[in-house]
Amino acid sequence: MGDVIEGVVTTPLDIITGDDGDVMHAFKKIEPDYKSFGEAYFSSVKYDHIKAWKKHLIMTLNIVVPVGEIKFVLFDDRKNSISKNNFLEINLSTENYQRLTVPAGIWTGFQGVSKGLNLLLNIADIPHDPEEADNLGINEIQYDWSMSK
Amino acid sequence: MGDVIEGVVTTPLDIITGDDGDVMHAFKKIEPDYKSFGEAYFSSVKYDHIKAWKKHLIMTLNIVVPVGEIKFVLFDDRKNSISKNNFLEINLSTENYQRLTVPAGIWTGFQGVSKGLNLLLNIADIPHDPEEADNLGINEIQYDWSMSK
To answer: How far apart are CA A77 and CA A84, in angstroms?
Structure first.
């Protein structure tokens, strides 16, 4: 999982299997990480493709991966952070079914790991607003994305 | 689509395609059907399997289907409803990518249509509470679920 980053939380979630299909928890208002609801959207990422890097200035991400497998890489360059310059790596899937909560201020990238559909749901605390996010090109933060890692 | 049921809303949603993957809208706080956030969860249903019937007494369902295809059947037995005894049928998928908003008081059932994964996301306005839902066996509301329909 690499380093720890201050404020990033992973929360194991239940999958209840059944004869007709499953129920998979995502997020409940009563959970301690719930702040508010702004928008829910899906994002898919193709096998070995990478979406990186984005840093939200206000939005908190709450991400689950119900289909496929996605590798997330987080990078902390916050001034005065106790985890400054740390990278956190985590693969989410139904095999490792956890919610990843990313506070504002953390650089985030992700990569499709399975050859089928790789799908994430983000339940964000504010609606999408391009003005509150910064972007960098994939090579502007040094990280080895090669799949053999 | 069968009949109309008072209070049921379908909202077409955007899918933004990209070279690395897609972004698929689900629900924004600023949309008119947004009431509150209680819980988000996934439910899958196997091919030709049926999950029916359930009626919520308080919860409003906001359902999207990001993977596969699911047939929803809604039945209105509300006293004094102008759509009493109506059935509404709708198939949701990425081909017909809409949000289905079901108010409290409507019987709901659904069936897996594709042979792969059929997955729905429900963004409910209250957290799950078994006390606020009624259940009936599949044969307790007369409906022909045969796939040839």
So the answer is: 5
Comparing alpha-carbon positions, the chain B residue that sits nearest to A50 is B20
pLDDT for B147 equals 80
Tell me the residue range of the domain where B39 lies.
Answer: 9-137
Distance CA A90, CA B4 (A): 46
Mean pLDDT of chain B: 96
Geometric angle at alpha carbon B56, from B45 and B46, rounded to 5°: 5
Task: Count how many domains chain B has.
Answer: 1
Kindly report, residue by residue over B128-138, the tens digit of the pLDDT: 999 999 999 99
Gap between the Cα atoms of B55 and B134, Å rounded: 5
| Distance (Å, whole) CA A104 – CA A107 | 9
Q: What is the pTM of this model?
A: 0.96
What integer pLDDT is reported at residue B148 of this predicted model?
Answer: 63
Q: Which CATH number belongs to the domain containing residue B121 in this structure?
A: 2.60.120.10
Contact B118 A21 (CB under 8 A): yes
Instruction: List the 110-149 stretch of B: residues with Cβ below 8 A of A.
Output: 112, 117-119, 121, 123, 127-128
Say whether A67 and B117 touch across the interface (CB within 8 A). yes
Domain-located, residue B14: yes
Q: What are phi and psi for residue A51, nearest 5 degrees?
A: -110, 105
Q: Is B20 a member of any domain?
A: yes
- The total number of residues written for chain A in this structure: 149
Residue B140 one-letter amino acid: E
> CA-nearest residue of chain A to B127?
A28
Dist CA B124 CA B129 (whole Å): 11
Residues of B in contact with A63 (CB under 8 A): none
Q: What is the pLDDT of residues A51-95, one digit of tens each?
A: 999 999 999 999 999 999 999 999 999 999 999 999 999 999 999
Cβ–Cβ of A127/B43 closer than 8 Å?
Answer: no
